Amino acid sequence: MQKILAAGLAAMLLTAPAVAQQQRESVGDGAQAPLRDLRINEKKIPDVLLLAASAPYSSQGTKSCTQIRASIADLNAVLGTDADAPEAKGGNGGAIAAAGSRAIVGTLIPGFGLVRMVTGADKQEKRVTAALYGGTIRRAYLKGLGVSKGCKPPAAPTAAARAAVPALPADDKDDKKKD
Domain-by-domain residue ranges, the chain? Predict the structure, then answer.
């Protein structure tokens, strides 16, 4: 069983170069999960995310479009591009590959959850998740302020993003029921 899982992990890692850079990094992050869980490969949370999470709706640094644009650029540097960026229209392949690699790595190491709890990796992961969430909220808030002040992208969402009509994604299960 472990040989099959190891082969699956190897195949996933070998196919990663064919995917975009961001997706390769996501798969690599999943493969490095044991190192993070043992706190060997722990990265510091960027200050911009810690500040954003501490006060996502702060009006500090929001007086002009230039300030808003700079704050959004700082957040984009650590969060990646926002949903309204043209290069963001690529699907969620990287997220799926990363989740798969984390699942495979997790099954190869007995007591994985216990190791995470004892080493404090769970606690650090919660801190990172909260910082990412706060940064995402801050960026959305800043873009909303940008719209209200008449700023141009990237200090506000693109016109296409504002004009988009919300739609639920197609669910494969619903499609199969219709057949």
Answer: 2-158
